[in-house]
Request: fold
Amino acid sequence: MNELEVFRQETRAWLEANCPASMRTPMPSDEMVWGGRTVEFKHEDQRLWFERMRDKGWFCPDWPVEYGGGGLSPQQVAILDAEMRRLHCRPPQINLGIWMLGPVLLEFASEQQKQQFLPPMAGGEIRWCQGFSEPNAGSDLASLRTSAVVDGEDFVVNGTKIWTSYGNKSDWMYALVRTGPMEPKQAGISLIVLDMASPGVTVSPIDLISGKSSFCQVFFDNVRVPRSQLIGELNGGWPLGKALLQHERSAMSKFSESALPTHFDLGEFLGKYLASPQTTAETVLQQRAVVCLMQEESFRLTNQRIYQTLRARQDASGLMAIAKLVHTEQERSKFELLLEIMGNHAMGWQGEGFDQRELDLTGAWLMSFAQTIAGGSSEVQLNVIAKRVLGLPEAK
Amino acid sequence: MSLVYNEDQLQLQDSARDFLSARSPASVQRAIRDQDIAAGYDAGVWQSMLDLGWSAVAFSEADGGLDFGFAGFAPLFEEIGRHLGASPLLSSIVLCGGLIEQLGSEQQRQQRLPQLISGELRLALALEENARHAPEAIQLEARRDGDGWVLSGEKTWVADAREADGWLVVARESEGRCGVFHVRADQAGVQTSARSMIDSRNMAALRLDQVRVAADDRLGSNDAGKALDLVLDWGRACLAAELLGMSETAFSMTVEYLKTRVQFGVPIGSFQALQHRAARLYADLQLARSSMMAAFAQLDRPGGDDRERRRLVSLAKWQAGQVAQRVSNEAIQMHGGIGVTDEYDLGLFLKRMRMAQNQLGNSDYHCQRYSDNRSA
Reply:
């Protein structure tokens, strides 16, 4: 038996012994565990699973042991992932810091910064949020204006960040700020990290068309941030920000894997609301639903193809460039079609006359409008495909 | 399920590309049309395909084949699409060869398959009696007569029927049973009438008037329905690959044109209105490719589930048809005037695409079939 096979056997045995049975069931969205200063557990099993995985270093299994990671090789990480999937283990915690900021710190931060930030992240002690977008810097992120001005040993930060997910529940933020000139605008940007408990930071949640949301706006009023919390070079933050966004895709896929209860299967609703079409209009609706199902299956196959292409060490960049565009637009079309099929049942806001699934659907439909905008709008995705994949020329 | 080509498939694709670009570029398709060649393909090109072993790819060694698996046809038909390569590979090998392999007795296979693979024998599948694919609506009648059979009826759309050595005729027997019969071209009572189609390939109507065939000319003795369903799926998957090859070529011609055509002092590909339309086509092409690959993977899966196969093949043919429709329309529109001239090759792609979209089931047909075979 080779070393990897031994590792597989040991991992399987350890998971079977240490992952409580209740942590091997599908996870309702309100049972996600978020690491951080105020980590909350609904059950003792959640705490056990959290602590056991933490002590193993398996919140970030691929990180070096010295920074609180598991020190596993890529092959071992793949085995761990596969074994966890096999046993249906829930993710022990959700932590954007580990998935997005961690890899960038490992690559670009000073040794002292790694010592300072990575072990608490790996231990699930600090919950991180992202400060990139601003009210006037959305798709054109490089035009951001939140300023960080050097004053002695500190930066003094003023401005505002928007669309910060869970800004009101996070302990620290990594943010792109302006430390240099606006022209050329990418050249005056730095990446800093800051404690959300610092004086001068205020956070207000944003209500969306779907109701309450996790999005927040964060305001900075003369917030003092030690210069030691600059990551990378002064005015060298833009490439780091781009590196962070590259990790966003994999983070989002981990996130959606763990947030399965929000999934609405078209087939489920078809059986209930359009079981046997009688009229031409109903038949047309049903055909549109079948088209929707075919597009969804093609996208699932495309996701598998991305994985297989990467595994075969072939270029998957073009395929990866379409994934967000196709998925979010398919979701929105599906919800729009469900509205037509279900009529008023899909447009209830609250209270009697609707079951919970219907009310959840209303929210998910409205939320689907945010998905084609957040994390790079469909238009930005199309620009990326046109320029980077197809090589079409820049506008003059 | 493998959704990317393996080394063997990539090698086959390379060699097909080299051969077709040298020997059967789009100009050959144009010459077939302009010289009004009745067979609808270039005999020399077909002979070379046979020499390259393309007809042997999917058959077992016992049947005289190479035992490569059905997956070999994915890269071949993709390249055939890219180069508009006309040949009887689909009609004679995939469809007729497939039916003989699936239905024929040991003796029938030994008599016919090696000849078919070598090209000595060329057959065409006489199935369609309607302008749109309807394999379940066969009316042509096969009546028992002593030891043999008598066939009567019409097959109105038979691809590659002209100059074939014979046809495999799908007929309705008593009690709704379905049989496949080998009818030879020189047999009494058969009349072929050519149909000149937009793709300039070989199409004819067949009329069978009391055509007597021997008992041994019926492939096997069982109902042919199940085998026909399977073999038509092989053909559909090949058409999906051909359509995808054509679509990708029409798309790359268009992207190239967007980069080089200058109007208002700039390449028109710098206009965001056109960039976004091109980007959406690129995404559509990827979904179609994933579906095509899944269909071929399923066809080679030993003991695969029939419903799963039907669903995935219909998905592939549907996606390929949809993307061909969109790409051809957008390609011509974005090319502007040059796109509607006969001199430019896009029109040849458009015409072959529409024929392949309709052949063995258009989008509506496969949407229905996908729905019928969806897991409950």
About this structure: Strands of chain B lie at 123-126, 141-145, 148-159, 166-172, 178-184, 190-194, 203-213, 262-263, 266-267. The mean pLDDT of chain B is 96. The interface with chain A takes residues 1-4, 255, 258-259, 265-267, 269-272, 274-276, 278-280, 282-283, 286-291, 293-294, 315, 318-319, 367-368, 370-371, 374 of chain B (CB under 8 Å).
